[in-house]
From TrEMBL:
Coiled coil: none annotated. It is found in: Membrane. It is a single-pass type II membrane protein. This is Glycosyl transferase, family 14. The keyword Methyltransferase does not apply. It comes from Buddleja alternifolia.
Length: 398
């Protein structure tokens, strides 16, 4: 009965056109309400913005700026649409300005292991040599290195791994200014030493212009001027990481059977800790998750991980990338487990010249008399004689 009555009335109203008017009124009211709400939201947001500006200006100006002056300043969200910011982001991605970061080692290795699949770079790339210093604190021979690098900006990058508690920062004019990377404690001969080397490599890999990576200690000196060393490394089609099979107890004798079958005795290699790697080899080293844990667990003193891990890894993974020789000269003639340390009175022209040209080796499949580019170990008191002799002998920039 009731439903019937209602439907009749509706039909009547529709006929009268009254229903149409009612819907129009409801529609208009909804629109008005919506506008009111939107207006309130905008007003609220605007107020916050103005209040922020007021707070910002109040200490400087007793009279807060008028609405109009705040309105003319750009809205903070607008910057997201600026396309030159995107280029800025690429710059930051291919060459992070600040070396300091809060990535864990795991995060750092993962990020550094990324390789572009487009071979050509969308920017002009000047190849650089990364000089990676593994030190405890201050570099005693820094003044010599400053002279070495002087005038070659843009062709090198420097990375320092120090004791974590060492926080001294050299003056802004120094090439070592703000070049420390986040570092951890290093125990000589143990896995933490390899961790430091991988950390140096990974940080240096973040700069896509770094093409060659040299590991150096605080007692190292250069044997040639920058241009000679740069050209030697940049033009070499192989890296300089020494590997050899040493049948003696201090070689094969350090192999641990528990490494089998991943690493066999015939895989086992020895070599100098002081290596040079090109980008491809550097990425192979920091990407290794297969051999590293085996060494960490089964190569402890008297097995020195820094003498066996990289030579064995490279022989297993990419033997053709290295020339199997090191470019850092060390004097082991004294015997024992430590090389000779040179003091003030040992340093003279004849001595340096004998290391610079006293050897024969192959370079890009040809004979060369330049075999070593760096030498160690030089005591801090060799700085004065080195500063006297080196600039002229090595041909540093005047
Ligand atoms: C984009 O940002 C740059 C600086 O970051 C600025 O010079 C330029 O005027 C901005 N362009 C636009 C359209 O906002
Ligand atoms: C590595 O070099 C040797 C010669 O030295 C060659 O016979 C071999 O095919 C090379 N291997 C690769 C993977 O390029
Ligand atoms: C370096 O040694 C490995 C094996 O230890 C060998 O495969 C490779 O060809 C050697 N490279 C050179 C340049 O002699
Ligand atoms: C290097 O090779 C040259 C020419 O073959 C030879 O005269 C010289 O004695 C060699 N030097 C050494 C240290 O073997
Ligand atoms: C390195 O370059 C030399 C000369 O250009 C060439 O003979 C040699 O095969 C190259 N070696 C490798 C491993 O590419
Ligand atoms: C570097 O030394 C070489 C010879 O060893 C010399 O020919 C060259 O001019 C020197 N470069 C500079 C920039 O002094």
């Amino acid at each position: 009965m009731l439903v019937n009555e209602l439907s009749i009335r509706i039909r009547k109203e529709v006929r009268d056109g009254r229903f149409q008017v009612a819907t129009t009124i409801v529609f208009c009211l909804s629109i008005a309400f919506l506008l009111l709400v939107v207006g309130m939201i905008i007003n609220d947001h605007f107020k916050k913005f103005v209040i922020y500006e007021d707070l910002h200006f109040s200490p400087l100006n007793a009279f807060p700026p008028l609405y109009s002056s705040s309105v003319s300043s750009p809205h903070p969200y607008m910057r997201q649409c600026n396309s030159s910011d995107a280029i800025h982001e690429l710059k930051e991605w291919i060459s992070p300005k600040d070396l300091w970061h809060s990535m864990s080692d795991e995060e750092l290795m993962w990020r550094a292991s990324m390789v572009p699949r487009i071979i050509e770079y969308p920017f002009s790339r000047t190849r650089k040599v990364a000089f990676m210093f593994l030190t405890r604190g201050r570099l005693p021979l820094a003044p010599l290195w400053e002279l070495f690098f002087n005038g070659h900006e843009g062709l090198f990058s420097i990375y320092l791994h120090t004791l974590p508690e060492f926080t001294h920062e050299p003056p802004e004019s120094s090439v070592f200014y703000k070049r420390r990377i986040p570092s951890k404690l290093v125990q000589w001969g143990r896995a933490t030493m390899i961790d430091a080397e991988r950390r140096l490599l990974a940080n240096a890999l973040l700069d896509f212009s770094n093409e060659r990576f040299v590991l150096l200690s605080e007692t190292c000196i250069p044997l040639f001027n920058f241009s000679t060393i740069y050209n030697y490394l940049i033009n070499s089609n192989q890296s300089f990481l020494s590997t050899f099979d040493d049948p003696r107890p201090i070689g094969r004798g350090r192999y641990n059977k528990r490494m089998w079958p991943t690493i066999t005795l015939s895989d086992w290699r020895k070599g100098s800790q002081w290596f040079e790697a090109n980008r491809e080899l550097a990425i192979a080293i920091i990407s290794d998750v297969t051999y590293y844990p085996i060494f960490r667990n089964h190569c402890m003193p008297p097995c020195y991980m820094d003498e066996h891990y990289l030579p064995t890894l490279v022989t297993k993974v990419c033997p053709n990338l290295t020339s199997n020789r090191t470019i850092t000269w060390t004097d082991w003639s004294g015997g024992g487990s430590h090389p000779n340390m040179f003091k003030r009175n040992d340093v003279n022209k004849g001595f340096l010249e004998s290391i610079r040209s006293g050897f024969n080796c192959t370079y890009n499949s040809e004979m060369s008399s330049i075999c070593f580019l760096f030498a160690r170990k030089f005591h801090p008191n060799t700085l004065q004689p080195l500063l006297m002799i080196a600039p002229k002998l090595l041909g540093f920039n005047p």
